[in-house]
Predict the structure.
Amino acid sequence: MSKTKESFKSDESWERWNTHQTTQVEQEVFGTVLRFVQDPSSEHLGTTVWDASVVLAKWFEKNIRKGDFARAKVRGKRALELGAGMGLAGMAFAMVGANVVLTDTVDVLPLLRINYETNLSPAAVRLARGHQHGTWADGAGTVEVQELDWTKPEQVAPLHPPFDYVLAADCIYHEGLTEDFHRTVMQVTNEKSTVVVCNELRSHSVQGRFMSLFTATHSIKSVPHAKMDDKYQHQNIFIYIMKKKKKGKAGVEEHGDDEHEEAAGDVGAGPGAAAPPVVGAAAAAEPASAAVSAAEGTPAASEAAASEAGCSGASEGAGPRSGAAGAAAGQAGELGAGEAAAGADRKDGTQAGAGAEAEAEAEAKGAKGQATDAEAAGRK
């Protein structure tokens, strides 16, 4: 697993909260300014606080009092952050009250440990508690840093899975790593685990592969942008809440507020659920493929992405087809229409034939009747 510049695409058309070029980052969360060091000279992109981690941290902040991610529900739970990078998202979740294990590859760990010691080590929490009594510090969970390379499954067992929560922020940008990421998630969770992925859309093919893997194994909800922090959100950054699906269920739906104002109700969607929302300039040009499996009834997202409006919930149906799947569907539709038209012609022909026979029979009967009348008149 390697986050290198060569495999990383970034949309620079919008103003970012942080970039790879900075050496120090300050981010306010829960009324406290967290401070992170970065290494601009590093070829490893895990040494950067990326915007998706800011969006996720601020979303945790927004949900601390109410819903499925409120402190009352999260406190004391075990959480694992995959590809933690500089650790902002995982640290924010620890500030809610979870006991979090921050993980990444060995070359990222030195900076990750420095940032942990600065912000959420026991000494740092005690200091915050002394200066800010009655704040997050009074209910903060524990934090530890461990190595976990997704390409090395043997590193999972020492972490003692399963975890109650698994977090990932801006980890899905390279198609070659999506299967390793998916396998790792499967290893560290059970059916009760909640997986929270915050990702920036950088590649439609990567997004399609990610959704294809996870819609086969998980029920997925998308958090509406209206439920994110008012300032820290972007149309190309999405939050997905996932749980291992029960047999016969899969799909994507919008993370609504039927049962909880700020968090999800039941996670899951029926057959034919829409692909996840992904928007941006390229989205309109490349609509998503959402082929539905006949055996499972589960949608498999293709390389492209669907618009947010068309894919916000399972009730709106599957997204538009594209590519070979779309062509096949169009051909099938044309064949079906042709067969229907032929059937209508056959039906019309049969009805016309029946009408002609009826007229001929009536004429014959009329002629026969006239002949009989004439014969009777002659006898008289």
